[in-house]
């Protein structure tokens, strides 16, 4: 979706009825790992390169190009907003990233389940 800094992200997961709790617990365990284990500098560098490539790919169509400039402008940002954010990611150090990732995954998380089987409400 087109947004500047929504403050949230989501994971879409499809699974069979009998695997919902197990699959949800696995995702929460991954988040715990992000919070409690070091994200290697090698993976950090790889993700930054992937994000830079994704940014370049995201401006390949007229619609994407229009969103790149129009969404920030409609929110009162300057025309270079997306470029500046991309440069900030490029210049982000591994140590600063580790601090931010720990902070992010220390926030309360919520699970929303859509389907025929209910999952006990979980936060953490």
Task: Walk me through this protein's architecture.
The structure is a single chain. The chain has helices at residues 20-36, 41-57, 62-74, 81-91, 94-104. It is mainly alpha-helical and 124 residues long. The longest helix has 17 residues, at 20-36. The mean pLDDT is 81.
Helix content: 55-70%
**DSSP summary, beta strand count:** 0
The averaged pLDDT comes out at 81
Low-confidence stretches: none
* Through-space gap between termini: 26 Å
Could you say which structural class the secondary elements and strand pairing correspond to?
A: mainly alpha
Q: What is the overall silhouette?
A: globular
Rounded to an integer in angstroms, the radius of gyration calculated over CA atoms is 18 Å
Task: List the helices and strands in order.
Answer: HHHHH
Topology:
Elements: H1 20-36, H2 41-57, H3 62-74, H4 81-91, H5 94-104
Short description:
By secondary structure, this protein is mainly α.
Using brief descriptors, characterize the structure shown.
0% strand; mainly alpha; 124 residues; 56% helix
